[in-house]
TrEMBL record:
Belongs to the initiator RepB protein family. Pfam families: Rep3_C, Rep3_N. Residues 7-154 form the Initiator Rep protein WH1 domain. This is Plasmid replication initiation protein. GO terms for molecular function: DNA-directed DNA polymerase activity. It comes from Nosocomiicoccus ampullae.
Length: 258
């Protein structure tokens, strides 16, 4: 199978996906990958082609059908929000999502079309900032936290450094409020570093703490070797610098005199 490159506007990374399973995430981004450059026309997926794209092993047909149903329910609730200094807009991502199958579940077909107002988020490369990664790498990651952090770091693949405040990091990874900062480090970040090292050279994290009493955690700085342009696959790398939808953490530190 050829190397499939997933690419979309950075704002897609702000969509909360904490209650999604690994398989549902894989199918969702596999679908986004195939919708790229297709405008808003309806796209057809066959059972085995979609499973291969999403790195899904079909062992039980009923489980596959149930996964598609759960995916459809989550996609039906998805909305995309884009904001600027004086406006914001919210829109559904898809206008059509249909799965059909035979009685014995030996065959299944999926039909999907993207909202015409959302289409530019996948296709208009000359506008805005973009996240780009190899789909096969994403689908190979098991932890849903690690999968989300993979996408966030790929947003900064050309810079090799990104900082997040604690609040932004919690929101982007949909971390439960019950998790203390120590839980984030032990249960999420340490595991994610192990999961993501094959995809980011010299990946490290620095926990940024306040000088105030108790040294509360303010945020996290992730560093790795930047990816180079002109590498082994066409269009894998972008020339434009990546920007996030949040105020850069270093600016936040300066504004709050930390």
């Amino acid at each position: 199978m050829k190397k499939e490159i997933t690419r979309y506007k950075n704002e897609v990374n702000t969509i909360p996906m904490r209650d999604w399973t690994r398989e549902e995430m894989n199918f969702f981004f596999a679908i986004l990958t195939k919708l790229r450059d297709e405008g808003n026309r309806r796209i057809f997926f066959d059972k085995y082609g979609l499973a291969e794209l999403a790195n899904y092993s079909i062992e039980h047909n009923q489980r596959y059908e149930k996964t598609m149903e759960n995916l459809a329910n989550k996609i039906a609730k998805l909305t995309y929000k884009e904001s600027s200094s004086n406006s914001f807009k919210i829109m559904p991502l898809f206008t059509y999502f249909e799965a059909t199958w035979t009685d014995d579940l030996s065959d299944l077909t999926l039909q999907v079309s993207v909202n015409e107002d959302f289409e530019y988020i996948l296709n208009q490369w000359h506008i805005g900032q973009w996240t780009s990664f190899e789909l096969k790498e994403f689908t190979a990651i098991n932890s849903t936290y690690s999968k989300t952090l993979f996408r966030l770091l790929k947003q900064w693949r050309m810079q090799g450094v990104v900082q997040y405040s604690v609040d932004d990091f919690r929101q982007l990874l949909s971390i439960p409020n019950s998790y203390k900062n120590s839980h984030i480090n032990e249960r999420i970040i340490k595991n994610a570093l192990d999961d993501l090292k094959p995809y980011f050279k010299n990946l490290k994290v620095k926990i940024i703490k306040s000088n105030k009493r108790g040294n509360p955690v303010l945020g996290y700085e992730f560093t790795f070797e930047p990816e180079r342009t002109g590498a082994w696959i066409e269009d894998k790398y972008e020339q434009t610098e990546s920007e996030g939808p949040y105020l850069p953490f270093k600016n936040w530190l300066e504004e709050n005199d930390v």
